Amino acid sequence: MKNTFSIGGVHPHDNKSYSAHKAIVEAPLPEQAVILLSQHIGAPAQPVVAVGDKVQVGTLLAKSGGFVSAPVHSSVSGKVVKIDNVLDGQGVPAPAIFIDVEGDEWLPSIDRTKTLLHECALEPKEIIQKIQDAGIVGLGGACFPTHVKLMPPPGKKAEVLIVNGVECEPYLTNDHQLMLEHGEEIIIGIRIVMKALGVTRAIIGIEANKPDAIEHMKSLASKVLGIEVRALKVKYPQGGEKQLIDACIGRQVPSGALPIETGAVVDNVATLFAIYEAVQKNKPLISRVMTITGKNVKNPGNYLVRFGTPTSQLVELAGGLPAGTGEVIAGGPMMGRSMSNIETMPANKRMSALLFMPENECYRPTPSPCIRCAKCLEACPMGLEPYLLSSLAKGEEWEEMEKHRVMDCIDCGSCVFTCPAHRPLLDGIRAGKGKVGSILRERAAAAAAKK
Questions:
Q1: For residue 219, how many other CB atoms are within 10 A of its CB?
Q2: 3-state secondary structure string, the chain?
Q3: Which phi and psi angles does 218 have, rounded to 5°?
Q4: Is the dihedral of CA 252, 254, 255, 258 positive or negative?
């Protein structure tokens, strides 16, 4: 019997056939790149270039704004013409650096050859520093700065590296294709991170609906001591960090705690590929493989996209906006964000996919009263009570929401997916989570001030 996590979960149709097994194609360069300064969880990066500066591919544009932050590099060569706000996918102003593209000149320090570099002679601290300097963040969705993950707090020690090759989000196939085309680089990236963490064991978790990736990665892993591949049951949200730890090593992350409490560090396969390129090739994180897909898309596929490329250009790459499109989503249908702006929003580290949803599939049915069926409780992979949290949010009962562990919510949307009354449970929970998080930060700041 295939492993899976022990609490909740749902089974949405995967809809992966539209872009599955489509070879990775490099997207054309934009005429102007718009590089966001905040492409990660944590403090925004601080610009180190000025208007008029000439940059090359790989040039540092902005330094880390703190420990939990990540630097930002140029994905193009050309001239900095503006440092200003751009409207993001939700129409909110976001600081960015605008670069008029002139050719494609790379920093000479970046190794652009296809030669595989297997051995890494760097010490663990040197590896982590290179990862930090390259602006590597988690590419599975959260965009948490990777160097922070690789530096467990005092008293905590990693025992195992868990590699996320699950890709449970419907429609997405970029990680699947990355494993098929760049499995060797991913394995080297795994070995590099194992060395940085000082662990001798790694588990690659892949859902059973990717048998070719499972066999390919098993073949590669069989040549390396300490790396194994696990075929996991198809169940959403198997790719959630806490759910994957449960599925792979049978340990649960305690409420309010970090995954390191279980002795595990989790990294996505795309992150590990980026680590290989950063450590072995001196290439900062300037692009990622994205899935562009949808039921009516003319050119669905997996595309290597430079950060800063306008979403409008990606729409053209897809063959234009399909007739009858109701929503364009950055990411997948379960955890992605609907975009109100596709003209100026640029591709960035957070954007794993661009999904075009037909109008007849993305409307919201009129919600009806809760019938107390408890399906949302059964579906929640964190063991929460979504119906209760949603009600508490409506009543602005923040303390009660905190008591009922709202901060443990992973925003997976399983509760909404399973609700027969079509109640917008996650909307209220997200709003309440934001308010409770703000209260917790204020409380922590006040406590620190008293010390």
A1: 11
A2: CCECCCCCCECCCCCCCCCCCCCCEECCCCCEEEEECCCCCCCCCEECCCCCCEECECCEEEECCCCCCCCEECCCCEEEEEEEEEECCCCCEEEEEEEEECCCCECCCCCCCCCCCCCCCCCHHHHHHHHHHCCCECCCCCCCEHHHHCCCCCCCCCCEEEEECCCCCCCCCHHHHHHHHHHHHHHHHHHHHHHHHCCCCEEEEEECCCHHHHHHHHHHHCCCCCEEEEEECCCECCCCHHHHHHHHHCCCCCCCCCHHHHCEEEEEHHHHHHHHHHHHHCCCCCEEEEEEECCCCCCCEEEEEECCCEHHHHHHHCCCCCCCEEEEEECCCCCCEECCCCCCCECCCCCCEEEEEEHHHHCCCCCCCCCCCCHHHHHCCCCCCHHHHHHHHHCCCHHHHHHCCHHHCCCCCHHHHHCCCCCCHHHHHHHHHHHHHHHHHHHHHHHHHHC
A3: -65, -40
A4: negative
Please tell us whether the domain made up of 124-281 is placed in CATH 3.40.50.720: no
Angstrom distances, CA of residue 332 to CA of 168, 180, 445 = 10, 21, 35
Closest by Cα among 24, 295, 259 to 164: 259
Name the architecture of domain 30-110+284-360: Roll (3.10)
Helix axes 386-394, 425-450, angle to 10 degrees: 70
**Residue spans per domain, the chain:** 30-110+284-360, 124-281, 375-450
Residue found by looking up tokens 């979504």 in the block: 386
- pTM value is 0.96
Q: What is the pLDDT of residues 269-315, one digit of tens each?
A: 999 999 999 999 999 999 999 999 999 999 999 999 999 999 999 99
Six-digit token string for 416: 């909404």
Cα distance between residue 133 and residue 157, in whole Å: 23
Identify residue 16 by its one-letter amino acid code. Answer: K
Pairing of strands 301-306, 287-293: antiparallel
Question: How far does Cα 95 stand from its chain's mean position?
Answer: 20
Neighbouring residues of 98: CB distance < 8 A, sequence distance ≥ 6: 32, 33, 34, 35, 80, 81, 82, 83, 84, 86
Which residues 6+ apart lie within 8 Å of 123 measured at CB? none
Is the distance from CB of 229 to CB of 219 less than 8 angstroms? no
304-348 pLDDT per residue, tens: 999 999 999 999 999 999 999 999 999 999 999 999 888 889 999
Preceding amide of 424 cis, omega within 30: no
Q: What is the pLDDT of residues 210-236, one digit of tens each?
A: 999 999 999 999 999 999 999 999 999
